[in-house]
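Chain A, query sequence.
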Amino acid sequence: MTLRHVVTWKLASEDAAERAAQAAEVARRLNALHGVVPQLRSISAGVNSIYPDVNWDVTLVADFDSVEALEQYAVHPAHEEVAVYIGSVVASRVAVDFEV
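Chain A, predicted structure.
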């Protein structure tokens, strides 16, 4: 089984340039977890590139071998550090986990 974890964030800043910079930083920090968090099978985070007035700002797609691996990732210190930054700039979060 592969579990796909998809998370999308809407950032809080009203300023488009600031929001874009923060989204880029969120994606950079998430992508830097590759090779650091052993439970990650794959990870890809990216910034929205079109329709910024209606689309959300940044999305993560990560694959895990199991629910347990996802749960271990969630409490890994490197992930927790990224989560603190994301929490400081986010307005809303939505997530979906599904088997692929």
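The radius of gyration is 13 Å. The chain has a mean pLDDT of 97.
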